[in-house]
Amino acid sequence: MSKTNPCNKPVSVLRKLAAATMVSTAILGGSLIAAPAIAEVGEPEKEDLKFGFIKLTDMAPLAVAYEKGFFEDEGLYVTLEAQANWKVLLDRVIDGQLDGAHMLAGQPLGATIGFGTQSHIITAFSMDLNGNAITVSNDIWEQMKPNIPTDADGKVQHPIKADALKPVIEKYKDDGKPFNMGMVFPVSTHNYELRYWLAAGGIHPGYYAPHKGDTSGQIDADALLSVTPPPQMPATMEAGTIYGYCVGEPWNQQAVFKGIGVPVVTDYEIWKDNPEKVFGVSKSWADENPNTHIRVVKAMIRAAKWLDDENNANRPEAVEILSRSEYVGADYEVIANSMTGTFEYEKGDKRDVPDFNVFFRYNATYPYYSDAIWYLTQMRRWGQIAEPKADSWFMDIAKKVYRPDIYKQAAEELIAEGKLTASEFPNFAEEDGFRAPQTHFIDGITYNGREPNEYLKKFSIGLKPEEQI
């Protein structure tokens, strides 16, 4: 899917003027006000690039940046290549076969702290908010249903909590049967969301003990979670290997269309507007290609904006792009079920969820330190980080991996070029990288990224700050 490079794209006149003018002035209320200079981003150090992705709808910013010519506008000639699984994708970024990739938010953090593969990976761009769900098989759904409240019309009430699943799992345990569930990768959002939902319902999802050589994540577990690649989730559940899973779209809606399962809760209902994927590159690649990196981020910001423009008006076109075999390759109707602002739970129970996929709204593209710290708290909660850590450690790792400074350079370029406005971004003069304390979790617990250890103390299931397996 690469395009030829006929010539370098001209640098925009607006940006040249901004770069050439060390101090510009504006008349406001009769007085002259000095405006800060905007440093010009130089030509890309590397023009021909290869980026990896997994076949999920939230790779959309990459596909859109390619298809709408946003990469070419930056003088970049990109090949997009689907990868077999998250491990292969990460390994290929580390060894340089890929220049960057659509990544799980936990991957740059996990790699940098050495959980699994050790390598310094950074991100300057958050690809989306929300976008996942938890699906169970038809048989498990029928066992859960009697435990779920209904409204006056007999429709089940959402959000569905894991409390409804707990009696089912207890019966399996009484019968001596393991209760197996799938997630996509040990440091995936899906793993932490599934664990969060289960634990909020009193179901222990198990601990990791890497310092003891146990990376199964199943110590003391009521439900046994294991890795299954996203596109294989529905077939694995249909075969009876797992009874449910947490995955991104379109693989929850695929279960509905195939009649093999029921999505019971979206990640939006577990944690409203949670960060999902990021665009990751190796630190060494970023150091060698700073101008290229900024230009990549610029193109992807424009793509994210296009995806959310005019209340999702471009989503049908985005669905058509994603349905192509070289991208997600699922049927248009399956992808549209969630990408266009609805979500189907039990067959025929389609509900409006306008923010199921968010790509630009709510500063979705900004790499917040507090987002990174949340993932680190969950790694610590479940033992992937084996030893107690001071609050300052969480902050140091977040700053090492998440790079809002690079994002800011890209955003200011787009503002100078007139492609976006300052009001569409965080206020960079005041932004410190922390969201306000977040309250919209399914268990009602508030998250304050400035106090990770205090946050860990609030959970009834999970390691406390001072505990170790």
Describe what this molecule looks like in 3D.
This protein has 469 residues and is of the alpha+beta class. The chain folds into 2 domains: 48-129 and 277-345 and 357-367 and 403-435, D-Maltodextrin-Binding Protein, domain 2 (3-Layer(aba) Sandwich), CATH 3.40.190; 132-270, Periplasmic binding protein-like II (D-Maltodextrin-Binding Protein, domain 2, 3-Layer(aba) Sandwich), CATH 3.40.190.10. It contains 19 helices and 18 strands. The strands form 7 sheets. A 5-stranded mixed β-sheet has the order 4-3-5-15-6, with helices on both faces. Strand 16 (342-344) and strand 17 (350-352) form a beta hairpin. The protein is globular. It starts with 12 loop residues before the first helix and ends in a 12-residue tail after the last helix. Residues 2-38 have low confidence and may be disordered.
Tally of separate helices:
19
CATH domain fold name of the largest domain = D-Maltodextrin-Binding Protein, domain 2
**Architecture (CATH level 2) name of the largest domain:** 3-Layer(aba) Sandwich
* Structural class designation: alpha+beta
Global geometry: globular
Radius of gyration: 22 Å
User: Helix fraction?
Assistant: 25-40%
So, the CATH homologous superfamily of the largest domain? Periplasmic binding protein-like II
Whole-number total of structural domains: 2
**Number of E-type strands:** 18
For the largest beta-sheet, the strand count, sense and barrel status come to: 5 strands, mixed
CATH class of the largest domain: Alpha Beta
Assembly state of the chains shown:
single chain
